[in-house]
């Protein structure tokens, strides 16, 4: 009986590990970056709604609620899968929703004056996470391989897959806390920040899709990945984390303008 329990625990643990998104560290970096770029009005409103919690503190809420089956309807909001040669909307969206429809729903509820305070707080936490997900390229990957989950690789001698490399391995093996990583990101000029914030979620999903296309070409099934892969792609990791935070701030500033 004990052996069966251990096996079941390991299976559950491995299953959960493969659902981690941008890693806890990555999402907190996005939240931390966004916090620095909030307008005074947005910061005040968010501080009140979240009872003083920072965006980094609530950034993993959408993953944490997966432990409660009553929130399963939100699982599909973490990603969107459509052909790499197509644009979002060319095909019928999933009936379960996706990261784009999820972000739009969050914004709608937060802006609605009739929404309850509890609902606004819930969907604000969701929004923080989903904008981060939108900037993880493999969350805009192909349906056929589950956004790279079926592309098995070896990461520094450990079994992994292309999705997990980008969700977890690259960031966690970098060895920095979220505060260290956030503070080590390149400094941005005001014109650069403004340029990053141009467009909308439809433009940003295309940008992530372009990166995903390159990532699919970056590995072979069963390939051993290590220092070189990290060296080649680390700048992209940093750029996507930073863009996620800067753009999250833009979305929030527009909500509370």
TrEMBL record:
Residues 1-17 form the signal peptide. The lineage of its organism: Bacteria, Pseudomonadati, Bacteroidota, Flavobacteriia, Flavobacteriales. Gene3D superfamilies: P1 Nuclease. GO terms for molecular function: endonuclease activity; hydrolase activity, acting on ester bonds; metal ion binding; nucleic acid binding. The keyword Metal-binding applies. It comes from the Bacteria. This is S1/P1 nuclease. PANTHER family: ENDONUCLEASE 4. Keywords: Disulfide bond, Endonuclease, Glycoprotein, Hydrolase, Metal-binding, Nuclease, Signal. One of its GO terms (biological process) is DNA catabolic process. It holds the Pfam family S1-P1_nuclease.
């Amino acid at each position: 009986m004990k052996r069966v329990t251990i096996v079941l625990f390991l299976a559950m643990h491995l299953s959960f590990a493969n659902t981690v998104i941008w890693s806890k560290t990555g999402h907190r970096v996005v939240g931390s970056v966004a916090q620095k770029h909030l307008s005074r009005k947005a910061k005040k409103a968010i501080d009140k709604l979240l009872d003083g919690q920072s965006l980094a503190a609530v950034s993993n809420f959408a993953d944490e609620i997966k432990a409660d089956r009553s929130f399963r309807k939100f699982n599909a909001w973490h990603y969107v899968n459509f052909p790499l040669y197509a644009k979002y909307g060319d095909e019928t969206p999933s009936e379960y929703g996706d990261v784009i429809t999820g972000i739009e729903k969050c914004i709608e509820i937060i802006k609605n004056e009739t929404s309850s305070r509890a609902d606004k707080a819930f969907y604000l936490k969701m929004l923080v996470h989903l904008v981060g997900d939108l900037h993880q390229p493999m969350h805009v990957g192909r349906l056929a391989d589950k956004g790279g989950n079926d592309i098995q690789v070896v990461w520094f001698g450990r079994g992994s897959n292309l999705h997990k490399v980008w969700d977890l391995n690259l960031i966690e093996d970098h060895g920095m806390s979220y505060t260290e990583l956030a503070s080590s990101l390149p400094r941005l000029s005001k014109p650069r920040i403004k340029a990053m914030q141009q467009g909308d979620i439809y433009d940003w999903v295309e940008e992530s899709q372009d990166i995903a296309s390159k990532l699919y070409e970056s590995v072979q099934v069963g390939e051993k990945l290590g220092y070189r892969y990290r060296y080649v792609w680390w700048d992209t990791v940093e750029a996507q984390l930073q863009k996620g935070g800067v753009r999250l701030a833009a979305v929030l500033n527009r909500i509370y303008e």
